[in-house]
Amino acid sequence: MGYAECAVWANQINEVAQGKTIVNVISNQNPHKFGFMALDHTVGYNPEKGWEHAKQYSHFLLGKTIAGATVKNAKKNITLTYIYIGNRVLMVGGYVGIPSYCAAGELRPKKHQLLLELDDGSALAFVITFGGLIYLFEVDENGDALNYTNAFPLLLSNEFSFEFFADLVNEQAGNKSIKDFLVTKYRIPGFGNESLHEVLWEAKIHPKSKMNALTQDEIIGLFNAIKTVFTAIIEQGGKDTDKDIFGNYGGYVTRASKHTLGKPCARCGGTIAKENNYIGSPIFYCPQCQIIKPS
């Protein structure tokens, strides 16, 4: 999942679980072939050792209080939700199913990779879908996962400035398409297909346009769109295409998504279109106000 989704999860976990104590831990109930659990960075992508580590999660979590959650960039240029518990941080990311909050008396998910039951009768459940990680690392004095830090700035931080973005464009964009540059090879941690189409709609840029065809004003517009869209998604609790930890859809109304496909563009009235499998996934755009710019 991307930066916006991880930030929404962190905000909601703070809302319902911060300050609560873990009274029961169930880990590895439903092992997942492409799910990874670990207690330190040395495990890497070794699922057998990772699931063996999972058996020790109770030792580090049971009786501990959830101090709070945030979002950070980690090694391998991925963005994760960080949940601080005791002297460790529970990191959730990849294609992990949406963390589920279960109020006291509500049924827990039948299948999960980690379930934390809290002292007020509520619970947090974490489910891996296509693949992902649930790591429980020690933290350093900065609150970063030990030996798992990443200096790349968060998308909404002051450090992710236009100057920083422009340097990235100059160094790595070349004649790549917009989509290729923004979401492949983890060039920009936290920027994935989840928010790509909203950013490009906001910037009036076609996903297949070439980066080296953009004017300076268009690059500025793209940067501003990143800041505007990610801020709005987080403030509105996620997009209307995604559910949150309570099982509700977010309040951010998408303009180029499966929800608007075939409908009039909110800006120009053109018809929102979809193309399948462009660089590994579908793209949504308005062909009337997002015109392809070749190199």
Short recap of the structure:
Helices cover 26% and strands 24% of the residues.
Number of helices: 7
How does the major sheet shape up? 5 strands, mixed
Distance between the termini: 31 Å
Q: Please state the oligomeric state of the protein chains shown.
A: single chain
Provide the number of structural domains.
2
Structural class call reads alpha+beta
| CATH class membership of the largest domain | Alpha Beta
Task: Order the strands across the largest sheet as they lie in space.
Answer: 2-9-5-4-3
By CATH, the superfamily of the largest domain comes out as MutM-like, N-terminal
Q: In CATH terms, what is the architecture of the largest domain?
A: Alpha-Beta Barrel
Shape label: globular
Rounded mean pLDDT score: 94
Number of E-state strands = 11
**Beta fraction of the residues?**
15-25%
Order of SSEs: HEEHHEEEEEEEHHHHEE
Are there runs of 5+ residues with pLDDT below 50, and where? none
Helix percent band: 25-40%
What name is given to the CATH topology of the largest domain? Answer: N-terminal domain of MutM-like DNA repair proteins
* Rg (CA only): 20 Å
